[in-house]
């Protein structure tokens, strides 16, 4: 669903741990309080797509004229409690990240008093996903990959500063807007950073982007899992394909990850297959830092942004959407 500003939930996803996301930066973990709007303030314009818990539609706010995306969670569908819990959690996480760079912005939370339906209203990004862009054009030249990673790391750093984990960062959950501006979207898996988390750590997120600590079964993971996923995205931008391919189970992926970690310790960036032969040393350092198997030694998003790869004078480069 290329134009949808809220990515549709895939079959692999399951509900994230229960609980609201923080209302704002600074450690306030209380549930955000909403003054719900009315869905009748919006005029439906058309359907953008449909996911597990409802339909995503294009709509226009009758008073302001702004065109928005609306995730419509029907109260009459099966699994209503799970759907509403996930929608409330997503709304709370988006509210906590309001104003964050490179993050999809929430506009409203509305209800239909007659039906009990719930509506999550966000800005509408009229563009493809980063996955669509990779499928169409293949690998990015290093300057464009750097520009994209700068945006994504800034977005992740802002999300993490609110005490929130996204838990499903991948190219399909990044929207490409005008001028190549990137927006991290689909906060349906997001949760406050309050371990331990219930359930199977591998049941949240998307297989190829799961961090080693999740694959090992740890319930005490933190923001480093998002950083690992960003490392996987960075490799994909540079190589044009996922770092882990032909892997179908958690156990198989863990074996691949541990092998990669050993190779990185021994050979550095040469451990990766498929990277451009002229890749800069600085880019290799960032990639290895994001994909460090030891989560305690893994770069944070904020630390990565301070690396010389982003500080170099030639770092001001075209955005992903530029030809």
Describe the structure.
With 323 residues, this protein is an alpha+beta fold. It has a domain of 186 residues: Transferase(Phosphotransferase) domain 1 (Transferase(Phosphotransferase), domain 1). The chain has nine helices and ten strands. The strands form three sheets. A six-stranded mixed beta sheet has the order 1-5-6-4-3-2, with helices on one face. Strands 7-10 form a two-stranded antiparallel ribbon. Strands 8-9 form a two-stranded antiparallel sheet. Strand 3 and strand 4 form a beta hairpin. Helix 3 packs antiparallel against helix 5 and helix 5 runs antiparallel to helix 7. The radius of gyration is 19 Å and the shape is globular. The two termini are 23 Å apart. The relative contact order is 0.14.
Draw up the topology in text:
Blueprint: E1 37-38, E2 42-50, E3 55-61, E4 67-73, H1 80-96, E5 106-111, E6 118-123, H2 130-137, H3 142-161, E7 164-165, E8 174-176, E9 182-184, E10 191-192, H4 212-215, H5 224-239, H6 250-267, H7 281-290, H8 301-305, H9 308-311
Short description:
ATP binds at residue 71. The chain is of the alpha+beta class and 323 residues long. Helix content is 32%, strand content 15%.
Please name the fourth-level CATH homologous superfamily of the domain at 130-315: Transferase(Phosphotransferase) domain 1
Radius of gyration: 19 Å
Q: What series of H and E elements makes up the topology?
A: EEEEHEEHHEEEEHHHHHH
Low-confidence stretches: 1-20, 22-32, 319-323
Q: Could you say what the CATH topology of the domain at 130-315 is called?
A: Transferase(Phosphotransferase), domain 1
- Within the largest sheet, what's the order of strands? 1-5-6-4-3-2
Q: Biggest sheet: strands, sense, closure? A: 6 strands, mixed
Quaternary state of this entry equals single chain
What is the overall number of helices? 9
Strand % is 5-15%
In the CATH scheme, the class of the domain at 130-315 would be: Mainly Alpha
Straight-line N-to-C gap: 23 Å
Overall mean pLDDT: 85
Number of strands: 10
């Amino acid at each position: 669903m290329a134009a949808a500003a809220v990515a549709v939930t895939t079959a692999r996803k399951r509900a994230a741990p229960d609980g609201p996301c923080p209302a704002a930066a600074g450690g306030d973990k209380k549930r955000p309080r909403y003054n719900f709007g009315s869905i009748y303030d919006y005029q439906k314009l058309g359907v953008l797509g449909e996911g597990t818990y409802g339909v995503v539609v294009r709509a226009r706010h009758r008073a302001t004229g702004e065109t928005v995306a609306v995730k419509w969670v029907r109260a009459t569908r099966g699994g209503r409690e799970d759907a509403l819990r996930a929608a409330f959690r997503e709304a709370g996480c988006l509210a906590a990240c309001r104003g964050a760079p490179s993050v999809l912005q929430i506009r409203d939370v509305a209800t239909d008093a007659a039906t009990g339906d719930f509506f999550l209203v966000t800005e509408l990004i009229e563009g493809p996903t980063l996955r669509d862009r990779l499928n169409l054009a293949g690998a990015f030249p290093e300057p464009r990959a750097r520009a994209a990673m700068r945006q994504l790391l800034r977005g992740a750093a802002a999300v993490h500063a609110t005490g929130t984990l996204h838990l499903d960062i991948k190219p399909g959950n990044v929207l490409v807007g005008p001028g190549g501006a990137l927006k991290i979207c689909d906060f349906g898996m997001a949760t406050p950073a309050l371990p331990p988390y219930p359930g199977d750590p591998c049941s949240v997120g998307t297989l190829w982007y799961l961090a080693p600590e999740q694959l090992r079964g740890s319930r005490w993971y933190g923001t480093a899992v998002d950083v690992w996923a960003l490392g996987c995205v960075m490799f994909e931008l540079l190589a044009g394909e996922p770092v882990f391919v032909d892997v179908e189970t958690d156990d198989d992926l863990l074996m691949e990850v541990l092998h990669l970690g050993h190779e990185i310790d021994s050979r550095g960036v040469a451990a990766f297959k498929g990277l451009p032969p002229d890749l800069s040393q600085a880019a290799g350092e960032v990639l290895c830092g994001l994909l460090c198997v030891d989560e305690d030694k893994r770069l944070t998003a904020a630390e990565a942004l301070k690396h010389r790869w982003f500080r170099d004078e030639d770092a001001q480069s075209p955005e992903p959407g530029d030809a």
